[in-house]
Amino acid sequence: MTSKQTLLRGRVLSFTAEPQGADDTSAYEFIEDGALLVADGMILAKGSYGDLAQQAAEAEVIDHRPNILMAGFIDTHLHFPQVQVIASWGSQLLEWLNNYTFPEETRFADAGHSAEMAGHFFDLLTAHGTTTAVAYCSVHKTSAEAYFDEAARRNMRMIGGKVLMDRNAPEGLLDTPVSGYDDTKELIAKYHGKGRGLYAITPRFAITSTPDQMEMAGALVKEHPDCYVQTHLSENHDEIAFTAELYPQARDYLDVYQSYGLLTPKMLLGHSIHLQPREIDALAETKAKPVFCPTSNLFLGSGLFDDAGLRSRGITNAIATDIGAGTSYSMLQTLNEGYKVLQLQNQKLHPLRAFHWITRGNAVALGLEDKVGTLEAGTEADIVVLDSRATHAMELRMQRAGTLSEELFILQTLGDDRSIAQTYVAGQPMKPAA
Prior knowledge:
By secondary structure, this protein is α/β, with parallel strands linked by helices. 38% of the residues lie in helices and 22% in strands. Strands 5, 6, 7, 8, 9, 10, 11, 12 and 13 form a nine-stranded parallel β-sheet that branches. Strand 11, helix 9 (277-286) and strand 12 form a beta-alpha-beta unit. It starts with 5 loop residues before the first strand and ends in a 5-residue tail after the last strand.
């Protein structure tokens, strides 16, 4: 029996490497009248519409012209339980956690609430063109189960984990070193590598884990080297000072994680703003991945991420929304604010590199570029359809745009969920037809 084939027609843009500038045409392929042949959740072929229409005469054709077809966006750091925390006014990191985040996360002990919020969370991701994300759940096993169950229902390539935290949080948000270890082991067995789900061992950050729990986290990493690890690093000066009080033997903040064996190429370190030279050396040596969260860093007044400085050391930086201190689910708006953060440091974010970053670049950071992040044949059919004329302001600006880079910069600066004409997850449309 022949599987149903779909031919998606549009202007196709896919990256094969990180562009070094506007003239680096070897890093990407752009097909003005292109198409993607999709079946069984996979991309079977990419090419010109004329060629593929002849090869797949029986395929259903969906014409998205003049919109751009691109790999679905990848968000490498956000918090599932913070869907009702986003846009909470006016604090810096530690106060913001205590005033807003921790009280909200206690509600995720309830399986019904977790399931309801998971539905909203995934609706918001796909509405904004995000098809893969790396998320923190709450301390409760119920929250991780709701997250992975909803991801499986939608057949999404998602990474996540229940947070480990046994101190400096409300009673309803604490586990123990043993219970955190046991719950994580059970969740890994249930979800990691099942369907498109992948697990991230998740000590929230040094402040909320005792040395005993860090030791347990290190044991989990050693026992499950194919799992990801995610935590936070050096977001805020008060956070760094408190960490130094709690771990006086550590050489610096990163050494807390390093000394327990958590630093691996599969580790994602949210924020990584205020780094010491030794920490940068350790990141370069271990190939752990800093994650740039521009809207969150600006919202909480945390500081400016040194993308160019870290990249000059051969470090691979990911980029993310950090919902809910982050202020938008949109990776387009994340690029918009990221551009400004880098401008303040005399660093440039060319639109070609920007769109590589939220597709293939983040996939490379996750070691998943053979599965997601490009439109190559044999990869999973996670695709976003971008409308550069989605708003009146964009339509007016597009009348004067003459190049692909200009069009991408309009999307990067003015785009949001209104620019997402469609999102395909494993070849299936996620947004209702207009």
